[in-house]
């Protein structure tokens, strides 16, 4: 649609692909974690970072799917430095295990892309008994970021290269509950609305990014923290721009149809 093709001051638009916006950038020597890179936008993010020479760690809950993606990236980019590690963001124990392994691996960390997400699921509780969308989309990433922050700060100090944390939010953040985040009713099944709960988790991604950016600036740490919320999230694929938007929304639609059919 024309509106997504309108270019901003950067010269790029929401229709620009990841390959286009990273053209000419050499990411050699940098290391990135991309959560949820077993499908959708995460795959394209991992692929293009690898294409630009970044060492990519795919943090995924489905190891088989992750390994298949890794193989397909290596097939296309034989020089890619890429590996797969297990991470289930809906489980705090899994997040802690991942962070412990990563922090003791000796790998630096320049970029953390908090991409994984679930959308509009029926009411469910995580392994820690927290509403699933809030647990996965926000709390898991919040804990992960906190646990990896020291490693990131060390990398920035040693490399003197700015670090970056990106939270993938959504325009859906506008459709949170009327009160915004229902801190005292996170697990209230009776008032649960799957789309509002998604919006609530995506609003949390934004508030998390803003507060972290503020506190890192105050601390004088050279790490920028930002969120993405526009449709540019879904238009990153060079190969198939519409595909990634479709997969997440298909999942949401499936649940809505089943819910309203009763
Ligand atoms: N596509 C859109 O229209 C759109 C628009 C705005 C914002 N976004 C945001 O963009 C991000 C990526 O969306 P997408 O369209 O690429 O979705 P997707 O194709 O459904 O991919 C989501 C990824 O998150 C992973 N994931 C889900 N639950 C997880 C968990 N508990 N632990 C670890 N990984 C988990 C999935 O793993 P499995 O493969 O194991 O399921 C999958 O790899 C999301 O944060 C979404 O909110 C998307």
Automatic annotation (TrEMBL):
Superkingdom field: Eukaryota
Gene3D superfamilies: NAD(P)-binding Rossmann-like Domain
Protein name, UniProt field: Uncharacterized protein
One matching Pfam family: adh_short
